[in-house]
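Field reference: "sequence" (input) and "structure" (output). Example, peptidylprolyl isomerase:
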Amino acid sequence: MDDDFDVPPADSMNDDFNFGGDGGDLETPVLKVGEEKEIGQQGLKKKLLKEGEGWNTPEAGDEVQVHYTGTLLDGTMFDSSRDRGTPFSFTLGQGQVIKGWDQGIVTMKKGENALFTIPAELAYGESGSPPTIPPNATLQFDVELLSWTSVKDICKDGGLFKKIVTEGEKWENPKDLDEVLVKYEARLEDGTLVAKSDGVEFTVEDGYFCPALSKAVKTMKKGEKVILSVKPQYGFGAKGKPAHGDEGAVPPNASLEITLELVSWKTVSDVTDDKKVIKKILKEGEGYERPNEGAVVKLKVIGKLQDGTLFLKKGHDEEGELFEFKTDEEQVIDGLDRAVLTMKKGEVALLTIAPEYGFGSSESQQELAVVPSNSTLYYEVELVSFEKEKESWDMTTPEKIEGAGKKKEEGNALFKAGKYGKASKRYEKAVKFIEYDTSFSEEEKKSSKTLKVACNLNNAACKLKLKDYKQAEKLCTKVLELESTNVKALYRRAQAYIQLADFDLAEFDIKKALELDPDNREVKLEYKTLKEKMKEYNKKQSKFYGNMFNKLHKLDSLDNNKAESKDAQPMNIDSKA
Protein backbone atom coordinates (compact mmCIF):
# COMPACT_ATOMS: atom_id res chain seq x y z
CA MET A 1 0.00 0.00 0.00
CA ASP A 2 1.17 3.53 -0.75
CA ASP A 3 2.40 5.00 2.55
CA ASP A 4 1.70 8.52 1.26
CA PHE A 5 -2.02 7.73 1.24
CA ASP A 6 -2.60 8.94 4.81
CA VAL A 7 -6.33 9.66 4.81
CA PRO A 8 -8.87 10.88 2.30
CA PRO A 9 -7.70 14.55 2.16
CA ALA A 10 -9.91 17.28 0.78
CA ASP A 11 -7.15 18.76 -1.35
CA SER A 12 -6.73 15.41 -3.17
CA MET A 13 -10.29 15.68 -4.43
CA ASN A 14 -11.63 17.29 -7.53
CA ASP A 15 -12.36 20.97 -6.71
CA ASP A 16 -16.06 20.28 -7.11
CA PHE A 17 -15.84 18.08 -4.03
CA ASN A 18 -13.50 20.13 -1.84
CA PHE A 19 -15.98 20.25 1.02
CA GLY A 20 -15.35 21.84 4.41
CA GLY A 21 -17.52 22.58 7.40
CA ASP A 22 -18.76 20.56 10.34
CA GLY A 23 -22.12 19.59 8.94
CA GLY A 24 -23.93 22.72 10.19
CA ASP A 25 -26.84 21.91 12.45
CA LEU A 26 -26.61 18.09 12.21
CA GLU A 27 -27.89 16.39 15.35
CA THR A 28 -25.84 13.69 17.06
CA PRO A 29 -27.82 10.44 16.63
CA VAL A 30 -28.52 8.36 19.74
CA LEU A 31 -27.36 4.83 18.92
CA LYS A 32 -27.00 1.49 20.66
CA VAL A 33 -24.03 -0.74 19.86
CA GLY A 34 -24.70 -2.44 16.53
CA GLU A 35 -27.36 0.09 15.50
CA GLU A 36 -27.03 2.16 12.31
CA LYS A 37 -28.65 5.55 11.52
CA GLU A 38 -28.42 8.20 8.84
CA ILE A 39 -26.78 11.53 9.73
CA GLY A 40 -28.33 14.50 7.95
CA GLN A 41 -30.00 14.33 4.54
CA GLN A 42 -27.10 13.47 2.22
CA GLY A 43 -26.84 9.73 2.74
CA LEU A 44 -24.11 9.59 5.42
CA LYS A 45 -24.66 6.59 7.75
CA LYS A 46 -23.16 5.78 11.13
CA LYS A 47 -23.08 2.38 12.84
CA LEU A 48 -21.95 2.31 16.49
CA LEU A 49 -19.30 -0.36 17.17
CA LYS A 50 -18.21 0.74 20.69
CA GLU A 51 -19.62 3.28 23.18
CA GLY A 52 -17.56 6.36 24.01
CA GLU A 53 -17.06 8.20 27.32
CA GLY A 54 -19.28 10.96 28.76
CA TRP A 55 -21.39 13.28 26.64
CA ASN A 56 -18.97 15.73 25.04
CA THR A 57 -18.25 15.68 21.31
CA PRO A 58 -15.68 17.72 19.33
CA GLU A 59 -16.61 20.90 17.47
CA ALA A 60 -15.45 22.65 14.30
CA GLY A 61 -11.95 24.04 14.89
CA ASP A 62 -10.96 21.28 17.35
CA GLU A 63 -7.83 19.24 16.66
CA VAL A 64 -8.82 15.54 16.68
CA GLN A 65 -6.73 12.38 16.83
CA VAL A 66 -8.20 9.19 15.29
CA HIS A 67 -7.36 5.69 14.17
CA TYR A 68 -9.16 4.54 11.03
CA THR A 69 -9.39 1.84 8.37
CA GLY A 70 -10.85 2.75 4.95
CA THR A 71 -12.47 0.19 2.64
CA LEU A 72 -14.58 0.04 -0.48
CA LEU A 73 -18.04 -1.58 -0.23
CA ASP A 74 -16.59 -4.88 -1.49
CA GLY A 75 -14.22 -4.94 1.51
CA THR A 76 -11.09 -3.83 -0.35
CA MET A 77 -8.94 -1.87 2.10
CA PHE A 78 -7.26 1.21 0.67
CA ASP A 79 -5.73 2.77 3.80
CA SER A 80 -5.26 2.20 7.56
CA SER A 81 -3.60 4.33 10.23
CA ARG A 82 -3.70 1.24 12.45
CA ASP A 83 -1.36 -0.58 10.08
CA ARG A 84 1.06 2.33 10.23
CA GLY A 85 0.77 2.43 14.04
CA THR A 86 0.40 6.23 14.03
CA PRO A 87 -2.87 8.06 14.82
CA PHE A 88 -4.03 10.60 12.26
CA SER A 89 -4.58 14.22 13.42
CA PHE A 90 -6.49 17.02 11.70
CA THR A 91 -8.61 20.09 12.42
CA LEU A 92 -12.37 19.56 12.19
CA GLY A 93 -14.47 21.72 9.89
CA GLN A 94 -11.55 23.26 7.99
CA GLY A 95 -11.83 21.21 4.78
CA GLN A 96 -8.70 19.21 5.60
CA VAL A 97 -10.60 15.94 5.06
CA ILE A 98 -13.63 14.82 3.04
CA LYS A 99 -16.96 16.24 4.10
CA GLY A 100 -18.23 12.87 5.32
CA TRP A 101 -15.48 12.86 7.93
CA ASP A 102 -16.18 16.43 9.06
CA GLN A 103 -19.89 15.60 9.41
CA GLY A 104 -19.40 12.21 11.04
CA ILE A 105 -16.65 12.77 13.59
CA VAL A 106 -18.44 15.72 15.24
CA THR A 107 -21.05 13.15 16.42
CA MET A 108 -18.47 10.98 18.25
CA LYS A 109 -17.47 10.84 21.92
CA LYS A 110 -13.97 10.19 23.24
CA GLY A 111 -13.06 6.51 22.86
CA GLU A 112 -16.02 5.80 20.58
CA ASN A 113 -15.62 3.42 17.62
CA ALA A 114 -18.00 3.75 14.66
CA LEU A 115 -18.37 2.60 11.06
CA PHE A 116 -19.25 5.40 8.63
CA THR A 117 -20.71 4.68 5.21
CA ILE A 118 -19.97 7.74 3.08
CA PRO A 119 -21.61 8.35 -0.31
CA ALA A 120 -19.49 9.61 -3.19
CA GLU A 121 -20.98 13.13 -2.88
CA LEU A 122 -19.41 13.42 0.59
CA ALA A 123 -16.17 11.64 -0.44
CA TYR A 124 -14.30 11.84 -3.78
CA GLY A 125 -17.24 12.27 -6.13
CA GLU A 126 -17.13 11.59 -9.86
CA SER A 127 -13.34 11.72 -10.07
CA GLY A 128 -12.48 9.28 -7.28
CA SER A 129 -8.83 9.16 -6.16
CA PRO A 130 -6.93 7.02 -8.68
CA PRO A 131 -5.58 4.45 -8.56
CA THR A 132 -7.05 3.38 -5.19
CA ILE A 133 -10.57 4.82 -5.16
CA PRO A 134 -12.75 4.50 -8.28
CA PRO A 135 -15.12 7.25 -9.52
CA ASN A 136 -18.48 7.59 -7.70
CA ALA A 137 -17.33 5.20 -4.95
CA THR A 138 -19.21 4.82 -1.66
CA LEU A 139 -16.62 4.36 1.09
CA GLN A 140 -16.62 2.84 4.56
CA PHE A 141 -14.40 4.03 7.40
CA ASP A 142 -13.97 2.25 10.72
CA VAL A 143 -13.03 5.22 12.94
CA GLU A 144 -11.98 5.37 16.60
CA LEU A 145 -11.89 8.85 18.17
CA LEU A 146 -8.86 8.73 20.47
CA SER A 147 -8.94 12.32 21.75
CA TRP A 148 -9.24 15.93 20.73
CA THR A 149 -7.85 19.30 21.70
CA SER A 150 -10.49 21.97 21.93
CA VAL A 151 -9.76 25.02 19.75
CA LYS A 152 -12.21 27.93 20.01
CA ASP A 153 -12.59 31.02 17.85
CA ILE A 154 -13.27 33.26 20.85
CA CYS A 155 -14.45 36.38 19.01
CA LYS A 156 -15.95 34.53 16.01
CA ASP A 157 -13.88 36.60 13.59
CA GLY A 158 -10.72 34.51 13.28
CA GLY A 159 -8.73 37.02 15.31
CA LEU A 160 -8.32 35.06 18.55
CA PHE A 161 -8.12 31.27 18.82
CA LYS A 162 -7.89 29.35 22.09
CA LYS A 163 -6.40 25.86 22.25
CA ILE A 164 -6.98 24.11 25.59
CA VAL A 165 -3.85 22.41 26.94
CA THR A 166 -5.16 21.61 30.44
CA GLU A 167 -8.86 21.42 31.29
CA GLY A 168 -10.08 23.57 34.19
CA GLU A 169 -12.31 22.79 37.18
CA LYS A 170 -16.10 23.05 37.49
CA TRP A 171 -18.04 25.21 35.03
CA GLU A 172 -17.86 28.85 36.15
CA ASN A 173 -16.06 31.55 34.16
CA PRO A 174 -14.89 34.97 35.42
CA LYS A 175 -17.12 37.99 34.73
CA ASP A 176 -16.20 41.60 33.89
CA LEU A 177 -15.95 42.81 37.50
CA ASP A 178 -13.99 39.79 38.79
CA GLU A 179 -10.31 39.98 39.77
CA VAL A 180 -8.31 37.21 38.09
CA LEU A 181 -4.87 35.82 38.89
CA VAL A 182 -3.06 34.52 35.79
CA LYS A 183 0.30 33.27 34.60
CA TYR A 184 1.23 34.04 31.00
CA GLU A 185 4.01 34.00 28.45
CA ALA A 186 3.77 35.95 25.18
CA ARG A 187 5.94 35.28 22.12
CA LEU A 188 6.16 36.56 18.56
CA GLU A 189 5.56 34.09 15.73
CA ASP A 190 9.32 33.51 15.46
CA GLY A 191 9.44 32.44 19.11
CA THR A 192 10.90 35.68 20.53
CA LEU A 193 9.74 36.16 24.14
CA VAL A 194 8.16 39.60 24.64
CA ALA A 195 6.47 39.27 28.07
CA LYS A 196 6.13 36.81 30.92
CA SER A 197 4.60 36.70 34.41
CA ASP A 198 4.42 33.95 37.04
CA GLY A 199 1.43 35.65 38.64
CA VAL A 200 -0.37 38.90 37.88
CA GLU A 201 -3.78 40.04 39.13
CA PHE A 202 -6.16 42.31 37.21
CA THR A 203 -9.84 43.15 36.85
CA VAL A 204 -11.28 41.43 33.77
CA GLU A 205 -12.99 44.51 32.32
CA ASP A 206 -9.82 46.62 32.80
CA GLY A 207 -7.67 44.03 31.03
CA TYR A 208 -3.90 43.56 31.07
CA PHE A 209 -1.00 43.47 28.58
CA CYS A 210 -3.22 43.22 25.43
CA PRO A 211 -6.99 42.85 24.74
CA ALA A 212 -6.63 39.09 24.10
CA LEU A 213 -6.04 38.31 27.79
CA SER A 214 -9.30 39.75 29.13
CA LYS A 215 -11.32 38.23 26.26
CA ALA A 216 -9.77 34.80 26.79
CA VAL A 217 -10.09 34.60 30.59
CA LYS A 218 -13.86 35.18 30.32
CA THR A 219 -14.06 31.81 28.52
CA MET A 220 -11.80 29.91 30.95
CA LYS A 221 -12.32 27.83 34.07
CA LYS A 222 -10.20 27.79 37.21
CA GLY A 223 -6.92 25.95 36.56
CA GLU A 224 -7.40 25.95 32.77
CA LYS A 225 -4.27 26.38 30.66
CA VAL A 226 -4.48 27.46 27.02
CA ILE A 227 -2.44 28.57 24.03
CA LEU A 228 -3.79 31.69 22.34
CA SER A 229 -3.19 32.53 18.68
CA VAL A 230 -3.57 36.30 18.61
CA LYS A 231 -3.99 38.39 15.47
CA PRO A 232 -2.88 42.08 15.60
CA GLN A 233 -6.40 43.42 16.34
CA TYR A 234 -6.36 41.61 19.72
CA GLY A 235 -2.66 42.27 20.29
CA PHE A 236 -1.07 45.68 19.68
CA GLY A 237 -2.51 46.49 16.25
CA ALA A 238 -0.86 48.63 13.60
CA LYS A 239 1.17 50.62 16.15
CA GLY A 240 2.85 47.69 17.89
CA LYS A 241 4.48 48.20 21.31
CA PRO A 242 7.91 49.52 22.21
CA ALA A 243 10.15 47.64 24.62
CA HIS A 244 9.56 48.64 28.23
CA GLY A 245 11.30 47.32 31.34
CA ASP A 246 11.40 43.52 31.15
CA GLU A 247 8.96 43.47 28.22
CA GLY A 248 10.26 43.21 24.66
CA ALA A 249 9.03 45.19 21.66
CA VAL A 250 6.09 44.01 19.56
CA PRO A 251 6.43 45.14 15.90
CA PRO A 252 3.48 46.76 14.09
CA ASN A 253 0.80 44.30 12.85
CA ALA A 254 2.49 41.40 14.67
CA SER A 255 0.65 38.22 15.63
CA LEU A 256 1.35 36.68 19.03
CA GLU A 257 1.24 33.27 20.66
CA ILE A 258 0.35 33.51 24.35
CA THR A 259 0.40 30.65 26.85
CA LEU A 260 -2.14 31.57 29.54
CA GLU A 261 -3.15 29.88 32.80
CA LEU A 262 -6.09 31.03 34.92
CA VAL A 263 -4.83 30.31 38.44
CA SER A 264 -7.86 31.64 40.36
CA TRP A 265 -10.19 34.58 40.68
CA LYS A 266 -12.14 36.56 43.24
CA THR A 267 -15.81 36.97 42.40
CA VAL A 268 -16.83 40.63 42.35
CA SER A 269 -20.52 41.56 42.07
CA ASP A 270 -22.48 44.78 41.65
CA VAL A 271 -25.01 44.40 44.48
CA THR A 272 -27.15 47.41 43.53
CA ASP A 273 -26.70 47.30 39.71
CA ASP A 274 -25.30 50.84 39.69
CA LYS A 275 -21.72 50.04 40.83
CA LYS A 276 -22.29 51.81 44.14
CA VAL A 277 -22.21 48.71 46.33
CA ILE A 278 -19.47 46.34 45.17
CA LYS A 279 -18.84 42.97 46.85
CA LYS A 280 -15.58 41.06 46.38
CA ILE A 281 -15.61 37.50 47.77
CA LEU A 282 -12.41 36.59 49.65
CA LYS A 283 -13.68 33.21 50.85
CA GLU A 284 -16.60 31.25 49.42
CA GLY A 285 -19.45 30.38 51.78
CA GLU A 286 -21.20 27.07 52.42
CA GLY A 287 -24.10 25.60 50.45
CA TYR A 288 -26.72 27.66 48.65
CA GLU A 289 -28.83 29.25 51.40
CA ARG A 290 -28.77 33.03 51.90
CA PRO A 291 -30.56 35.26 54.42
CA ASN A 292 -34.01 36.51 53.42
CA GLU A 293 -35.58 39.87 54.24
CA GLY A 294 -36.33 39.86 57.96
CA ALA A 295 -33.56 37.35 58.79
CA VAL A 296 -31.45 37.82 61.92
CA VAL A 297 -27.77 37.82 60.88
CA LYS A 298 -24.57 37.61 62.94
CA LEU A 299 -21.34 39.00 61.47
CA LYS A 300 -17.70 39.61 62.08
CA VAL A 301 -17.18 43.07 60.66
CA ILE A 302 -14.48 45.71 60.23
CA GLY A 303 -15.45 49.12 58.85
CA LYS A 304 -12.87 51.60 57.51
CA LEU A 305 -12.74 54.93 55.70
CA GLN A 306 -10.72 55.51 52.54
CA ASP A 307 -7.73 56.77 54.57
CA GLY A 308 -7.76 53.59 56.70
CA THR A 309 -9.49 55.12 59.75
CA LEU A 310 -11.25 52.32 61.67
CA PHE A 311 -14.81 53.25 62.66
CA LEU A 312 -16.29 49.80 63.44
CA LYS A 313 -14.87 46.48 64.64
CA LYS A 314 -17.05 43.64 65.96
CA GLY A 315 -16.54 39.91 66.54
CA HIS A 316 -12.78 39.79 66.01
CA ASP A 317 -11.65 39.56 69.64
CA GLU A 318 -11.55 36.13 71.31
CA GLU A 319 -14.68 36.80 73.32
CA GLY A 320 -15.84 39.61 71.08
CA GLU A 321 -19.54 40.12 70.58
CA LEU A 322 -20.72 39.51 67.03
CA PHE A 323 -22.43 42.27 65.05
CA GLU A 324 -26.11 41.34 64.94
CA PHE A 325 -29.06 42.91 63.14
CA LYS A 326 -32.33 42.10 61.39
CA THR A 327 -32.21 42.57 57.62
CA ASP A 328 -34.55 44.94 55.78
CA GLU A 329 -35.39 46.79 59.02
CA GLU A 330 -33.12 49.84 58.54
CA GLN A 331 -31.00 48.79 61.52
CA VAL A 332 -27.81 49.29 59.47
CA ILE A 333 -26.87 51.32 56.38
CA ASP A 334 -28.64 50.27 53.19
CA GLY A 335 -25.48 49.08 51.40
CA LEU A 336 -24.49 46.68 54.19
CA ASP A 337 -28.09 45.46 54.48
CA ARG A 338 -28.32 44.67 50.77
CA ALA A 339 -24.89 43.05 50.54
CA VAL A 340 -25.50 40.65 53.44
CA LEU A 341 -28.63 39.35 51.67
CA THR A 342 -26.34 38.06 48.87
CA MET A 343 -23.97 36.16 51.19
CA LYS A 344 -23.78 32.52 52.28
CA LYS A 345 -22.87 31.22 55.73
CA GLY A 346 -19.09 31.39 56.24
CA GLU A 347 -18.54 33.74 53.31
CA VAL A 348 -15.95 36.49 53.75
CA ALA A 349 -16.26 39.53 51.51
CA LEU A 350 -14.92 43.05 51.01
CA LEU A 351 -17.62 45.68 50.46
CA THR A 352 -17.12 49.09 48.88
CA ILE A 353 -20.15 51.28 49.63
CA ALA A 354 -20.75 54.68 48.04
CA PRO A 355 -22.22 57.50 50.22
CA GLU A 356 -25.71 57.05 48.70
CA TYR A 357 -25.90 53.61 50.33
CA GLY A 358 -23.89 54.61 53.40
CA PHE A 359 -24.35 57.61 55.68
CA GLY A 360 -25.02 59.99 52.79
CA SER A 361 -24.41 63.70 53.18
CA SER A 362 -24.60 63.54 56.99
CA GLU A 363 -21.73 63.15 59.43
CA SER A 364 -22.20 60.05 61.62
CA GLN A 365 -20.69 59.18 64.99
CA GLN A 366 -19.78 55.48 64.93
CA GLU A 367 -18.33 53.21 67.59
CA LEU A 368 -14.66 54.03 66.99
CA ALA A 369 -14.65 57.21 64.91
CA VAL A 370 -16.73 59.89 63.25
CA VAL A 371 -17.65 59.14 59.61
CA PRO A 372 -17.50 62.43 57.66
CA SER A 373 -20.28 63.37 55.25
CA ASN A 374 -20.20 61.87 51.74
CA SER A 375 -17.76 59.13 52.76
CA THR A 376 -17.16 55.96 50.75
CA LEU A 377 -17.06 53.06 53.21
CA TYR A 378 -15.00 49.84 53.16
CA TYR A 379 -16.15 46.79 55.10
CA GLU A 380 -14.65 43.36 55.59
CA VAL A 381 -17.56 41.10 56.52
CA GLU A 382 -17.84 37.45 57.51
CA LEU A 383 -21.37 36.02 57.74
CA VAL A 384 -21.02 33.76 60.79
CA SER A 385 -24.66 32.64 60.95
CA PHE A 386 -28.22 33.66 60.14
CA GLU A 387 -31.75 32.68 61.05
CA LYS A 388 -34.21 33.20 58.23
CA GLU A 389 -37.57 34.82 58.80
CA LYS A 390 -40.30 32.21 58.62
CA GLU A 391 -41.63 31.85 55.09
CA SER A 392 -45.38 31.71 54.46
CA TRP A 393 -45.32 28.02 53.50
CA ASP A 394 -43.97 27.19 56.98
CA MET A 395 -46.78 29.10 58.76
CA THR A 396 -50.15 28.04 60.10
CA THR A 397 -53.19 30.00 58.87
CA PRO A 398 -53.45 32.16 62.02
CA GLU A 399 -49.70 32.91 61.72
CA LYS A 400 -50.16 33.95 58.09
CA ILE A 401 -52.98 36.36 58.96
CA GLU A 402 -51.05 37.74 61.95
CA GLY A 403 -47.89 38.09 59.83
CA ALA A 404 -49.79 39.91 57.08
CA GLY A 405 -51.24 42.31 59.65
CA LYS A 406 -47.77 43.08 61.03
CA LYS A 407 -46.30 43.71 57.58
CA LYS A 408 -49.22 46.03 56.80
CA GLU A 409 -48.54 48.08 59.93
CA GLU A 410 -44.83 48.23 59.10
CA GLY A 411 -45.76 49.41 55.61
CA ASN A 412 -48.03 52.13 57.03
CA ALA A 413 -45.22 53.44 59.26
CA LEU A 414 -42.79 53.52 56.33
CA PHE A 415 -45.35 55.27 54.11
CA LYS A 416 -45.84 57.99 56.71
CA ALA A 417 -42.05 58.41 56.84
CA GLY A 418 -42.00 58.95 53.07
CA LYS A 419 -40.16 55.66 52.39
CA TYR A 420 -42.49 54.51 49.64
CA GLY A 421 -40.24 51.86 48.10
CA LYS A 422 -39.75 50.04 51.40
CA ALA A 423 -43.42 50.46 52.29
CA SER A 424 -44.40 48.89 48.95
CA LYS A 425 -42.24 45.83 49.70
CA ARG A 426 -43.97 45.38 53.08
CA TYR A 427 -47.42 45.49 51.50
CA GLU A 428 -46.34 42.98 48.86
CA LYS A 429 -45.03 40.61 51.53
CA ALA A 430 -48.26 40.96 53.53
CA VAL A 431 -50.35 39.92 50.50
CA LYS A 432 -47.97 37.03 49.78
CA PHE A 433 -48.66 35.57 53.24
CA ILE A 434 -52.39 35.28 52.49
CA GLU A 435 -52.32 34.91 48.70
CA TYR A 436 -53.58 31.29 48.74
CA ASP A 437 -56.59 31.08 51.06
CA THR A 438 -58.52 28.06 49.77
CA SER A 439 -57.86 26.14 53.01
CA PHE A 440 -58.95 29.10 55.21
CA SER A 441 -62.19 29.02 57.23
CA GLU A 442 -64.95 31.49 56.27
CA GLU A 443 -63.94 33.83 59.09
CA GLU A 444 -60.28 33.59 58.08
CA LYS A 445 -61.19 34.28 54.43
CA LYS A 446 -63.06 37.40 55.55
CA SER A 447 -59.99 38.67 57.48
CA SER A 448 -57.75 37.75 54.56
CA LYS A 449 -59.91 39.70 52.09
CA THR A 450 -59.91 42.81 54.30
CA LEU A 451 -56.10 42.68 54.53
CA LYS A 452 -55.66 42.11 50.77
CA VAL A 453 -57.88 45.09 49.96
CA ALA A 454 -56.08 47.38 52.41
CA CYS A 455 -52.55 46.29 51.40
CA ASN A 456 -53.18 46.49 47.65
CA LEU A 457 -54.80 49.92 48.02
CA ASN A 458 -51.92 51.20 50.15
CA ASN A 459 -49.40 49.68 47.74
CA ALA A 460 -51.18 51.45 44.86
CA ALA A 461 -50.70 54.73 46.76
CA CYS A 462 -46.96 53.88 47.04
CA LYS A 463 -46.73 53.16 43.32
CA LEU A 464 -48.41 56.49 42.49
CA LYS A 465 -45.81 58.27 44.65
CA LEU A 466 -43.05 56.29 42.89
CA LYS A 467 -44.58 57.18 39.48
CA ASP A 468 -45.07 53.49 38.64
CA TYR A 469 -48.53 54.10 37.18
CA LYS A 470 -48.93 50.74 35.42
CA GLN A 471 -48.44 48.85 38.68
CA ALA A 472 -50.76 51.26 40.51
CA GLU A 473 -53.47 50.53 37.91
CA LYS A 474 -52.94 46.73 38.28
CA LEU A 475 -53.17 46.86 42.08
CA CYS A 476 -56.39 48.86 41.98
CA THR A 477 -57.84 46.39 39.49
CA LYS A 478 -57.04 43.55 41.94
CA VAL A 479 -58.98 45.40 44.64
CA LEU A 480 -61.96 45.97 42.32
CA GLU A 481 -62.01 42.25 41.52
CA LEU A 482 -62.64 41.70 45.24
CA GLU A 483 -64.82 44.79 45.82
CA SER A 484 -66.28 46.26 42.62
CA THR A 485 -67.69 49.31 44.48
CA ASN A 486 -64.49 50.35 46.26
CA VAL A 487 -64.36 54.13 45.75
CA LYS A 488 -60.67 54.45 46.76
CA ALA A 489 -59.68 51.85 44.18
CA LEU A 490 -61.66 53.62 41.45
CA TYR A 491 -60.18 56.99 42.48
CA ARG A 492 -56.55 55.75 42.54
CA ARG A 493 -56.96 53.83 39.30
CA ALA A 494 -58.32 57.01 37.69
CA GLN A 495 -55.22 58.87 38.94
CA ALA A 496 -53.02 56.23 37.28
CA TYR A 497 -55.03 56.39 34.03
CA ILE A 498 -54.68 60.20 33.92
CA GLN A 499 -50.88 59.91 34.18
CA LEU A 500 -50.93 57.24 31.46
CA ALA A 501 -53.08 59.56 29.27
CA ASP A 502 -55.96 57.03 29.20
CA PHE A 503 -58.50 59.80 29.72
CA ASP A 504 -61.61 57.84 28.68
CA LEU A 505 -60.87 55.09 31.21
CA ALA A 506 -60.08 57.68 33.89
CA GLU A 507 -63.41 59.44 33.25
CA PHE A 508 -65.29 56.13 33.45
CA ASP A 509 -63.76 55.34 36.88
CA ILE A 510 -64.35 58.86 38.23
CA LYS A 511 -67.99 58.88 37.13
CA LYS A 512 -68.52 55.49 38.74
CA ALA A 513 -66.85 56.68 41.97
CA LEU A 514 -69.12 59.78 42.03
CA GLU A 515 -72.20 57.61 41.51
CA LEU A 516 -71.18 55.64 44.62
CA ASP A 517 -70.08 58.68 46.65
CA PRO A 518 -71.44 61.93 45.11
CA ASP A 519 -70.01 64.16 47.86
CA ASN A 520 -66.45 62.81 47.78
CA ARG A 521 -64.31 65.98 47.62
CA GLU A 522 -61.09 64.24 46.45
CA VAL A 523 -62.85 62.53 43.55
CA LYS A 524 -64.50 65.83 42.50
CA LEU A 525 -61.10 67.57 42.50
CA GLU A 526 -59.62 64.75 40.42
CA TYR A 527 -62.50 65.11 37.94
CA LYS A 528 -61.65 68.79 37.62
CA THR A 529 -57.98 67.88 36.99
CA LEU A 530 -59.06 65.34 34.38
CA LYS A 531 -61.18 67.90 32.50
CA GLU A 532 -58.27 70.36 32.43
CA LYS A 533 -55.92 67.63 31.13
CA MET A 534 -58.44 66.63 28.46
CA LYS A 535 -58.90 70.26 27.38
CA GLU A 536 -55.12 70.71 27.16
CA TYR A 537 -54.76 67.43 25.25
CA ASN A 538 -57.52 68.34 22.76
CA LYS A 539 -55.93 71.74 22.20
CA LYS A 540 -52.56 70.12 21.40
CA GLN A 541 -54.21 67.61 19.09
CA SER A 542 -56.10 70.35 17.29
CA LYS A 543 -52.90 72.35 16.83
CA PHE A 544 -51.01 69.27 15.62
CA TYR A 545 -53.62 68.30 13.04
CA GLY A 546 -54.06 71.94 12.02
CA ASN A 547 -50.35 72.22 11.26
CA MET A 548 -50.42 68.91 9.46
CA PHE A 549 -53.34 69.97 7.22
CA ASN A 550 -51.61 73.30 6.48
CA LYS A 551 -48.50 71.43 5.35
CA LEU A 552 -50.55 69.10 3.19
CA HIS A 553 -52.35 72.09 1.64
CA LYS A 554 -48.98 73.72 0.80
CA LEU A 555 -47.72 70.50 -0.74
CA ASP A 556 -50.88 70.22 -2.85
CA SER A 557 -50.39 73.82 -4.02
CA LEU A 558 -46.78 73.09 -5.01
CA ASP A 559 -47.85 69.96 -6.91
CA ASN A 560 -50.54 71.94 -8.76
CA ASN A 561 -48.04 74.66 -9.70
CA LYS A 562 -45.61 72.06 -11.03
CA ALA A 563 -48.37 70.40 -13.05
CA GLU A 564 -49.38 73.75 -14.57
CA SER A 565 -45.74 74.48 -15.40
CA LYS A 566 -45.39 71.14 -17.19
CA ASP A 567 -48.64 71.71 -19.10
CA ALA A 568 -47.44 75.12 -20.26
CA GLN A 569 -44.01 73.93 -21.47
CA PRO A 570 -45.06 72.20 -24.73
CA MET A 571 -46.88 75.36 -25.83
CA ASN A 572 -43.64 77.34 -25.56
CA ILE A 573 -41.77 74.74 -27.54
CA ASP A 574 -44.42 74.67 -30.25
CA SER A 575 -44.43 78.45 -30.60
CA LYS A 576 -40.65 78.48 -31.07
CA ALA A 577 -40.87 75.73 -33.61
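Residues 521-576 form the longest helix (56 residues).
The two ends are 92 Å apart (CA to CA).
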